[in-house]
Amino acid sequence: MPRLSIRPLAVLAMTGTLILTGCGTQTGDPGGRAAPVGADRIIRAHKVMQLTKVHEETGMTLLEGPAFGEDGGLFVVDVTAPSGRPKVIRVDVGKKTSRAVHTDDRGAYTSAQFSPYDGRLYLTDYAHGEVVSLAPDGGDQRTFFSGEVEGAQMNPDDIAFDEEGNLYVSDSRGLSEGKEHGRVVRIDRDGEKASVLAEDLASTNGISFDVDYRGLWISELTQNRISYLRLDGKGGVASRHTAIRVDGGIAQTDSIAVDADANLYLGLHGRAAMAVYDQHGERIATVEIPSRAEGLESVTNVAITPGGTKAYMTVSGPAGGFLYSFDAPAEGIRQSNGG
Description:
Blueprint: E1 11-13, E2 17-19, E3 33-34, E4 41-44, E5 46-52, E6 63-68, E7 74-78, E8 88-92, E9 97-102, E10 109-114, E11 121-125, E12 130-134, E13 142-145, E14 148-149, E15 152-153, E16 156-161, E17 167-171, E18 175-176, E19 179-180, E20 182-187, E21 194-201, E22 204-209, E23 215-220, E24 225-231, E25 237-245, E26 252-258, E27 264-269, E28 273-277, E29 283-288, E30 298-304, E31 310-317, E32 320-327
Parallel strand pairs: 3-25, 4-29
Antiparallel strand pairs: 1-2, 5-32, 6-7, 7-8, 8-9, 10-11, 11-12, 12-13, 14-15, 16-17, 17-20, 18-19, 20-21, 22-23, 23-24, 24-25, 26-27, 27-28, 28-29, 30-31, 31-32
């Protein structure tokens, strides 16, 4: 991670040094559509509750992940939580209560999502290049995947599962010697085989399947764009192109979610807001928090209630880590529940 940048892909090298970087994707097609600024409607988000405060040991807090479990609990990870502090938190959004369900002495977890294959909660450990899984109650930690993929260690950021339970991971390897090294990695559901689907990407960050599981939306943090990978149905990529160019100003592209109407929700790091696009690249809305909410600088991700439109996004900054809610334009599906 030679490029330092405060991002929700932030990572704690558990030696006490905080290393923050981005993730991305770039392809050879320059024909992405520019996202119109000011042409979209504003959706107001409302504070649900504060979940974390800035950690003295790491100097920050950074919430990610949100994913609903089968019991209705919303699971959130704190990327920069030090050893002994809650790293996975379960929220009862109805009662507005939370409790710690997991901690350990090394992980820097940047995403959370439940597998459709075994029902376990999968986490990406950015700092150690691993994917781990937990039982739904936060116990029984297992290392699902560790080691190099095609000669290089991963910096895994977000996860997308296909319908069979195979994992697609945004590998946010950074820039070195003037070349981008971000990748998209596919890991079989048994964790035995991993392969690179796309490489030379600009700090790969968010990743989500489209509504029909025909392709993957990938955000590239250091180039502020979203790329689309059309899959070939055989575990490979048929085509790849730049789909949306994000005019974010000082903000950068973060995690991606997709709703039942195929809309994309893009977290903005550097601005406490979320951009919403249709599948053709038109910006249809911006989700904003109240302007009086000072000390909040980043929206990392969102989970939309499965089968409903109530959405919950993770918001962080010097004021702490918060959960905000809003009414989404369409219903939540698996692609809008973690990653």
